[in-house]
Structure formats: C-alpha cells, structure tokens
C-alpha cells in the first residue's frame, strides 16, 4: 500500500487520501477518494487506483443533493463494495460540505451514510445492504486452510466457517487463539486462486476476545494486497454472520480491532439491529498528506 507515480494519473482526476477507521494518518486503512468521477471511464479509474497504490480508491459521481454513485477499484480490478473507502469518502464530503446524511448507490443497492463532527474529528456510519450467510463448503474450507497454513484444529468450533455477504462475499474463519490469528504467513497465489473461483472479496479471519469484542485480519490477494488493516465491508458481513448464527442478541454493538499486527491499528464499531436488514459500521477518518 505504497503510493506509486502520481504523474501517471489522468490530468482530470484529483485524488484525496484518507486513513479510515482511525484518528491518525499512521493508523487505519488508507483510501483514495475521487470526488467527481463523471468524466472517467473504467480503464482510467483502474489506472488511478493503481497509481494511488492503496487497497481501494472510491470514485464518486454526484446524482442529486447528497446522493452519489460510488464505485471502488483496487490496483487489480473493480470491487463491488468497499467499507473503508466509503467511510473515507463520506468524511471527505463532510469536510467539504458539512456533516449530514448521504446516500451512496453501489452495485448491490443503496448504502445510507451519516456523518457527524465532534471537535473536528468526523465520524461516518454506513449501513450496508441486507446481509446473508451460508455455511462454507468443506472443499472451500480445506483449500483456504491449506493456503493459510492453518490446521482444522486451530479453528474455533463456536465460529463455524461461513460465506457472509453485505454487498460483497467474505469467507469467515474463526481462530481458536489470538496467537493463531497473530501469525499470518499464507500462500498468496493459492489463496487468490480460490477467492477468484469462489467470488470472495476477502477472507475474514477473526478471534473472539469476548462476545462484544473481536480481533480481525483480512487477506486481500484478489486486490493485489497481502492484508487489509481495516475492512468495513467484511465487518458488515461479519455483523450479519453474528446475527444469523445467534452469537449476539440484537440489537447489539460489537467492536472489531484490526490492523494491530500490521502496525496500523484500526477500530470498527458495528451496530447490529434485529431482523435481516443492513449492519451499521462506524469509524473516523483523517486526511493523509500527499507525498
């Protein structure tokens, strides 16, 4: 996630850089934000994302007042939904136009986002599209474990492997110990091949410290990134997973700590309502000074 040569970007693009799910530029997950992408085609957006060099860049096209079409590109391809870039984009908009309510139109549907400002630190809260989760097929789990170098006995039996959705698909694997989660050394190409075949955006590796506090790591080889330090889309899907499996009593609030093993600590807050609706993911974001 290192910036590459910005001179390769189309002259029409102006890219803002924000760190999401943190209150410091050295933490969280960096995201690029293009505030008006109406004049850009797919190839240009991909080129910009590659030039920025972050896991994702959000491209907004204004619709009506406070409504935007939002698309997300990694350095490899377009992704259907990205939580941390949504948070970054919403905070950027709030910084320009003031806090309030927004609607992002993503490929899966409408994502409402609310922003608030507390003494200059802006928080954004996105509500995902509806969630669903299904048990992961045994062959998928076996291949994922092989690529990760994990043993089946290192999984938490109370967090069964599922494919969870909240705008994008994520394989959820629960680690039995913090030490297992903390040691991540996987076969990049093998895991990438599995994820492409199964249409997975990330693998969501989680460890439960307590019922309302989880630690997470998210390999993202399909985006050309070894690991994401904060993954809002996976967090939303995981909130739906917790609700579907009865691991929380909704309404519930759950905290996810991510990025600590990478030296970019991130804090994500989930608000999980009853029923089958979307999960609200909240976090702060701050500007990164461009090189």
Give a structural overview:
- By secondary structure, the protein is of the alpha+beta class.
- It has two domains: 6-124, Diaminopimelate Epimerase, Chain A, domain 1 (Roll); 132-285, Diaminopimelate Epimerase, Chain A, domain 1 (Roll), CATH 3.10.310.10.
- The chain contains six helices and 17 strands.
- The chain has helices at residues 42-52, 83-97, 138-148, 178-182, 188-198, 232-244, and strands at residues 15-20, 29-34, 56-62, 67-73, 78-79, 101-106, 109-118, 121-127, 132-135, 162-165, 169-174, 202-210, 213-220, 225-228, 252-258, 266-272, 280-287.
- Strands 1-2-3-4-6-7-8-17 form an eight-stranded mixed barrel.
- Helix 3 runs antiparallel to helix 5 (188-198).
- The chain is globular, with a radius of gyration of 18 Å.
- The two termini are 13 Å apart.
Compact description:
With 291 residues, the chain is of the alpha+beta class. It has 6 helices and 17 strands.
Overall 3D form: globular
Task: Report strand %.
Answer: 35-45%
Number of domains: 2
Query: Element order, helices and strands?
Result: EEHEEEHEEEEHEEHHEEEHEEE
Which structural class should the secondary elements be placed in? Answer: alpha+beta
What's the CATH class label of the largest domain?
A: Alpha Beta
What's the CATH H-level superfamily name of the largest domain?
Answer: Diaminopimelate Epimerase, Chain A, domain 1
* Residues in helix, %: 10-25%
Count of extended strands: 17
Tell me the major beta sheet.
8 strands, mixed, barrel
CATH architecture of the largest domain: Roll
How many whole angstroms does the radius of gyration measure?
A: 18 Å
Average pLDDT score: 95
CATH topology of the largest domain: the name is Diaminopimelate Epimerase, Chain A, domain 1
Neighbour order of strands in the largest sheet: 1-2-3-4-6-7-8-17
Unreliable residue runs: 1-7
Query: Distance N terminus to C terminus?
Result: 13 Å
Q: How many separate helices?
A: 6
């Amino acid at each position: 996630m290192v910036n590459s040569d910005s001179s390769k970007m189309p002259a029409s693009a102006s890219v803002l850089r924000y760190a999401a799910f943190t209150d410091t530029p050295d933490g969280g997950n960096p995201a690029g934000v293009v505030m008006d992408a109406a004049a850009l085609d797919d190839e240009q957006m991909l080129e910009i994302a590659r030039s920025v060099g972050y896991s994702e860049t959000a491209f907004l096209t204004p619709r009506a007042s406070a409504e935007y079409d939002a698309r997300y590109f990694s350095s490899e391809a377009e992704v259907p939904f990205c939580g941390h870039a949504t948070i970054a984009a919403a905070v950027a908009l709030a910084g320009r136009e003031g806090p309030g309510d927004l609607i992002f139109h993503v490929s899966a549907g409408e994502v409402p986002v609310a922003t608030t400002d507390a003494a200059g630190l802006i928080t954004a809260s996105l509500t995902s599209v509806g969630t669903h989760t299904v048990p992961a097929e045994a062959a998928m789990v076996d291949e994922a474990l092989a690529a990760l170098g994990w043993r089946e006995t290192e999984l938490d039996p109370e967090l069964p492997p599922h494919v969870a959705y909240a705008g994008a698909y994520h394989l959820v694997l629960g680690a039995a110990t913090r030490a297992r989660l903390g040691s991540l050394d996987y076969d990049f190409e093998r895991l990438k091949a599995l994820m492409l075949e199964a249409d997975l955006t990330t693998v969501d590796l989680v460890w439960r410290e307590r019922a309302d506090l989880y630690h997470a790591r998210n390999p993202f080889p399909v985006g050309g990134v070894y690991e994401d330090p904060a993954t809002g889309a996976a967090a939303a899907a995981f909130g739906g997973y917790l609700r579907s499996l009865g691991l929380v009593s909704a309404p519930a609030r759950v905290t996810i700590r991510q990025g600590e093993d990478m030296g970019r600590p991130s804090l994500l807050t989930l608000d999980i309502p009853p029923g089958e609706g979307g999960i609200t993911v909240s976090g702060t974001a701050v500007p990164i000074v461009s090189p």
